[in-house]
Amino acid sequence: MSAPVELRTQRPLWRLSARLRPIRAGQQPRGVTLAVFLVLLLVAALVGVTAAAIFGPAGLIAVPVVLFGLPAVWFLVVFASASWYSTGAGRPVLVLAGDEVRGRLRPVWAGAPGGPDDPDWWDVRVPVTELVAVRVTHEDRDIRRRFLALDLPPELSATLAAAPELADVVPRLVTAAGSPAAWAAGTMLPGGRRQRAARLRELVEAVERARAAGGQRH
Fold first, then answer.
1. Residue ranges of the alpha helices (H) in 21-87?
2. Residues forming beta bridges with residue 181, ordered by sequence position
3. What is the rounded distance in angstroms from the CA atom of residue 218 to the CA atom of residue 199?
4. Alpha carbon 208 to chain centroid distance?
């Protein structure tokens, strides 16, 4: 049986981090999180130098590990949790449903209502025959930099760019992928580099086949 034509985040460590540190709408980590982390790094360095003067080389290592290590781990947990929710929290964010392509661009924060069966879930709904193109970006770069992007009709792109609920999302996607409808699939998919690249090709080819079949019917 062939894999469903859909994209969702499948990263177990991200999911675990989200359980440890759920993030709800309005609680997204801000730049202050990184600032606090850098301050802790500076403090750990100063404490390490002081401890070395008192306890010798062992103090140079032990004290910073305790002071800096735990906050560093927590920072990574928060970052992974934010990645989980911002890429759909494991729910479908791109599907081919018959002759229609549906996409979710907004994050899915903890406790968010609704789901893929709710019409309000989707930010993009377009007949597959109206797609200008479907492509993978940055194929010459590391797999983690690659986006799966839909090139949309100009009027639909303009509608997405003007939507207030997408004001924080669309500009970043256009900068990263050259399209308002794009997903960081290179980081969302499981497996190694080759497995992710193969799954991206499968998704693109499935949508292209649907476009070709729809065009022949019309």
1. 31-55, 57-86
2. 150
3. 29
4. 23
